[in-house]
Each structure stands twice: as C-alpha cells, then as structure tokens.
Amino acid sequence: MIGMKVTKSMATRLVHVLLTAALILCANLAYAEDRNLLPKYGGLPETAIEKEINAKFISVNDEDYHGDRKKASMDMAMRGWQYLAAGDLDDAMRRFNQAWLLNRKNGTALWGMAAIESSAEKYDDSLKLFTEAEKFVGSEINFSVDYAKALGKAGVKLNDETLLKFAFNRFEYNYRKAPQNTLNLQNWAMTLLGIRKYSEAWAKVKLAEATPNKDQLDPRFLADLQSHMPRPEN
Known about the structure:
Blueprint: H1 8-36, H2 48-64, H3 69-85, H4 89-102, H5 107-119, H6 123-137, H7 141-158, H8 161-177, H9 182-194, H10 198-208, H11 219-228
C-alpha cells in the first residue's frame, strides 16, 4: 500500500520470500537442464513452461525450414554428431534431443543418443535406443558397427552370453558386408580381448591391419592386448 510503513519483520519476510523464489527458480532451471542431458528428455511429461519453450522452438524451425521438419531435425542431429566427435557429450545430447523433438523418427538422433549412453556404460538404455534407431536407420554400415560395439561392451561388462552372441553375430554380418571396415574388426578384437580370447583377438587385428584405414586402430588397445598376450609371430 502507498504510504504503508515497512517494519523490520516485514522486510525480513520479504527477503525470505524472494530467496525462496530464487531457489525454486534455480532448482527448476537445474531440473530442466538435467532433462536436456537425458535421451528423449528422460521420457517425462513436459511442464507447462517446457511446452511453451518447445512450441516456440518448433515454430522457429518451421519458419526457417519452411515447414520441413525432417530436414530441420536432420541438420540438428548432424550438429549433435559434430559435438560428439569433438567430445562434447552434453551439447551433443542437447542437439540430439532437439532433433528428436522435431522428428520422433529421426534414427540418426536416436543413434547418437545410444552412442552417448554406451560411452557412459548405461547399457540398458543404450541398447534400447539402438534397437529403436535401427527401425529408421536400416542397413547403414556405420550404425551397425556402432551397435555391434555397444553389444560387445555390454556383453563383456555384464558377462552376458546372450549379448555376446548378438555382438559376434553382428560383427560377422558387418564383416561379410564390409570386410575392409577397420573399426568393426577392431571392435570385434576388443570384445574378444574382453573375454580373454587373445589369439582370436590378434587374428582380427591382423585383418584390420590389412585394411586401407589401418591407421584408425587405437594404439592403446593394441598395447593392452600386447600386455595380455604378445603378438603372434605368424
């Protein structure tokens, strides 16, 4: 009220209210940021504020891309892969989520999410995302190579025979389809190392070293394998 005298207790209460409001705002912002770093925003319902923000984001992209959401989504997903290649996983996940928001069937975005979750050893989430992505990505060899790698990592880490069987079947499939794919052979060898089949791992390394992109082989992996079993002479 105009002319109302503000007492010390009233001022104290006002400060308390403002601090509480600020803390709630910070908590909400932190919560929203956390969701941005989860695949598909954690699968949680949108808040009223998020609905408004997301609607605005979609509207702006519709205007920029003349309503072509598939192209807008793919461009956003490719930005995510650029961040991922640079090692910026947080910004990569943000872009993959935005791509998915624009097009829920963007397999390239789902693939990126799956790759990030695999790198974080969140194998259950990763493999679910790979399975979902495959419906939209199809026979893309680089996708299949990444999927096999994730299966192999999960199988070794969880000591899961079924996952290992799926991994080896996919490694073999990839090899038949693209025998010169260095990374598939390396991932195959890494999985064999993980289950202590060292001589078989060296056999895959030998095949990888005969490929045009043999410089893609990770020297740290080769050193690790060497520490478990010296390279066979033949």
